[in-house]
Backbone:
């Protein structure tokens, strides 16, 4: 990742933090307006555990988002930290991919100067994740900054092994996300499935897996279905997104998500698939309708 403010996820997360003081008034505005349009009647097939990434809907207060996604049949929300877990629990939603221990996407496990901070963060966060009843906590390789692959693997494995015992004790899986380094996260090191798989082999723990982001891996390597089949034992979570642009996953983009979801199901996947596309509509009702369309596309 280049650190540019143009990166969608980084900009969205930053805006959520900066705008936190205004969230109360936003929630009041939602409460005072007419209720959001009810999702059309639809019964989920029950084969996919559907989730959604919080940051993509940062303009919608979390309470309103929880209400909306639960009506759609979504059972979980991704990338939520401890302060927001009570809100999810209130609505009967699961935190399918916890966050909050990472420094950021650039300063990761591949550089030893960040190890002391990361080890402290993860050693403290893993028990909290377990106590709340959750199973997965995200992590990142970090930017290369001229590191070769071998040094990156060595440094990541060395640092992560220092917290794997804690993860194993608490039955929490640390999940490293695969991100593209071509468009969105310039210089990110874990930018190919094979790179993450090699790291997984070196760590040698069932409590370390990979988050296969379909959008990112389509950009950096393609061959999505075959790659998933080949490396399935190392994958524990999936994110969606339309290519190009990380917009809706409908016919406006190049991936055919029903086939990808069918391939995942055929492998016996029982984890979560989280929608992580940026909805085109600016209003909350339109964004939730866009999300509902994405979920139905993936509900095979």
Residues:
């Amino acid at each position: 990742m280049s650190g540019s403010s143009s990166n969608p996820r980084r900009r969205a997360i930053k805006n959520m933090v900066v705008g936190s003081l205004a969230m109360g008034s936003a929630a009041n505005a939602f409460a005072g307006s007419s209720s959001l349009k009810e999702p059309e009647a639809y019964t989920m097939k029950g084969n996919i555990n559907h989730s959604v990434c919080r940051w993509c809907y940062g303009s919608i207060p979390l309470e309103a988002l929880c209400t909306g996604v639960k009506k759609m049949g979504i059972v979980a929300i991704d990338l939520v930290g401890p302060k927001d877990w009570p809100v999810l629990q209130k609505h009967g939603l699961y935190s399918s991919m916890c966050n909050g221990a990472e420094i950021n996407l650039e300063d990761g496990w591949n550089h030893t100067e960040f190890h002391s901070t990361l080890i402290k963060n993860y050693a403290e966060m893993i028990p909290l994740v377990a106590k709340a009843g959750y199973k997965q906590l995200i992590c990142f390789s970090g930017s290369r900054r001229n590191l070769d692959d071998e040094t990156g693997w060595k440094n990541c494995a060395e640092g992560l092994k220092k917290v794997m015992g804690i993860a194993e004790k608490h039955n929490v899986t640390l999940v490293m996300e695969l991100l593209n380094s071509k468009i969105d996260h310039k210089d990110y090191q874990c930018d190919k499935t094979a790179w993450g798989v090699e790291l997984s082999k070196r760590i040698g723990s069932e409590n370390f897996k990979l988050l296969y982001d379909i959008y990112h891996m389509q950009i950096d390597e393609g061959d999505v279905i075959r790659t998933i089949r080949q490396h399935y034992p190392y994958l524990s979570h999936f994110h969606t997104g339309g290519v190009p642009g990380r917009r809706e996953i409908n016919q406006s983009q190049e991936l055919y998500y029903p086939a990808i979801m069918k391939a995942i199901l055929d492998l016996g996947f029982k984890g979560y698939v989280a929608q992580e596309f940026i909805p085109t509509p600016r209003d909350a009702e339109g964004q939730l309708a866009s999300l509902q369309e994405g979920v139905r596309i993936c509900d095979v």
Observations:
- DSSP finds eleven helices and eight strands in the chain.
